[in-house]
């Protein structure tokens, strides 16, 4: 999981009271301005928070994934309605994703400059070994005047002019960081099949939810975004995705009291967390149960036991219309194997994930290993 908040110990030069001589002291700074995953025991569950008022487009989501590679799966996810209003946040469920397992390393800038060949730019960093860093990816500055700036590197290289713990990263654009500043290797994002949940809370208090299923393309802007591509970390779905109808609930609901009016029988959205028990004698937990079954190139979705099919009408009027008549969503897989993961934005609430793959059994009667006489 990404989105864990590590503190930083930095040395800051100060003037002492005696004679004005300079000294130094260790100070703790929270310079990692990104979305953070916290365990909220009062919820109870995992909650994604923002560290500042930065717009949801401009920070990377918290990523959570399973280490094991598989082909098809059944995921049972207990989640809450996002606590933030508007179209944010989407929950992104990633299927057959080529998610890597590189850690988020924090490195010291040692030296920067252009390559002697004039074909690119380099930055020398200390803080990890050559083997620990990805082949290519993105650096983000955490300190200095350019804090928050990202820089893409195309490949890594060993450096013979410094100690063995210094690694060179090579990119096509100048690196704006300065010596002694701290940079972070960002978790790499990938294009892959995706189930996206879009929530909305209208001005009159209605809860709306619809599903989009297709290929998350990290090279495409989020639909309707009015910002530059460099600041858009939500990203969009490639042409050819399908959508469900829009499910509407007249009011928010924590599980207590009268059920709200809905536009589709059997549909319900819980806020997530504690609510009064039916007999009002104590608190019990109410969570939305999202079930996603991926069977090859088919994606079946159930929301609180209600089958969510793709909408023929809504999918037919998309910018790239999709003709669909099945109760499942079709997906395109680059490879038959991959990892299950989630991308989560501020306001997301998650209680539990149960992930099941195909049963793998071996019979000793196969291939003539045993014979019955």
Defining key terms:
single chain, 373 residues, mainly beta, Jelly Rolls, 2 domains, eight-stranded antiparallel beta sheet, 1 helix, 1% helix, 40% strand
Here the CATH topology of the largest domain equals Jelly Rolls
Query: What is the number of independent domains?
Result: 2
Which range best describes the helical content: under 10%, 10-25%, 25-40%, 40-55%, 55-70% or over 70%?
under 10%
The number of distinct β-strands equals 27
Query: Count of helical segments?
Result: 1
Unreliable residue runs: none
Give the DSSP E fraction (strand runs of 2 or more residues): 35-45%
Distance between the termini: 54 Å
* Spatial shape: globular
What structural class do the secondary elements suggest? mainly beta
Order of helices and strands: EEEEEEEEEEEEEEEEEEEEEEEEHEEE
The CATH architecture of the largest domain comes to Sandwich
Mean pLDDT: 83
Q: Supply the CATH class of the largest domain.
A: Mainly Beta
| Largest sheet data | 8 strands, antiparallel
Report Rg: 25 Å
């Amino acid at each position: 999981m990404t989105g864990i908040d590590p503190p930083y110990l930095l040395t800051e030069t100060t003037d002492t009271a005696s004679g004005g001589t300079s000294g130094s002291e260790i100070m703790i700074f929270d310079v990692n301005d990104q979305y953070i995953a916290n365990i909220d025991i009062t919820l109870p569950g995992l909650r994604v928070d923002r560290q500042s008022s930065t717009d949801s487009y401009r920070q990377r989501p918290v990523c959570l994934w399973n280490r094991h590679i598989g082909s098809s799966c059944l995921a049972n996810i207990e989640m809450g309605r996002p606590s933030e209003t508007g179209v944010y946040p989407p929950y992104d469920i990633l299927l057959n994703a080529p998610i890597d397992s590189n850690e988020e390393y924090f490195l010291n800038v040692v030296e920067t400059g252009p390559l002697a060949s004039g074909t690119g730019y380099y930055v020398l960093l200390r803080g990890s070994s050559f083997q620990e860093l990805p082949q290519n990816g993105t650096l983000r500055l955490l300190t200095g005047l350019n804090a928050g700036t990202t820089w893409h590197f195309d490949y890594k290289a060993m450096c013979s002019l410094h100690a063995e713990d210094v690694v060179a990263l090579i990119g096509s654009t100048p690196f704006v960081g300065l010596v002694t500043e701290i940079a972070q290797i960002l978790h790499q994002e990938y294009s892959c099949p995706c189930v996206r949940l879009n929530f909305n809370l209208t001005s009159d208090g209605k809860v709306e939810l619809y599903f989009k299923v297709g290929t998350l393309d990290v090279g495409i802007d989020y639909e309707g975004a009015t910002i530059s591509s460099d600041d858009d970390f939500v990203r969009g779905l490639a042409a050819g995705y399908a959508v469900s109808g829009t499910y509407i609930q007249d009011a928010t609901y924590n599980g207590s009291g009268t059920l709200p009016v809905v536009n589709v029988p059997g549909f319900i959205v819980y806020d997530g967390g504690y609510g009064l028990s039916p007999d009002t004698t104590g608190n019990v937990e109410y969570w939305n149960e999202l079930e996603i079954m991926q069977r090859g190139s088919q994606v079946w979705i159930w929301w609180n036991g209600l089958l969510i099919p793709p909408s023929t009408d809504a999918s037919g009027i998309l910018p790239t219309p999709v003709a669909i008549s099945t109760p499942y969503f079709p997906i395109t897989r680059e490879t038959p194997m991959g990892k299950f993961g989630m991308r989560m934005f501020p306001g997301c609430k998650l209680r539990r994930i149960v992930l099941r793959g195909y049963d793998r059994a071996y019979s000793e009667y196969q291939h003539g290993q045993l014979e019955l006489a």
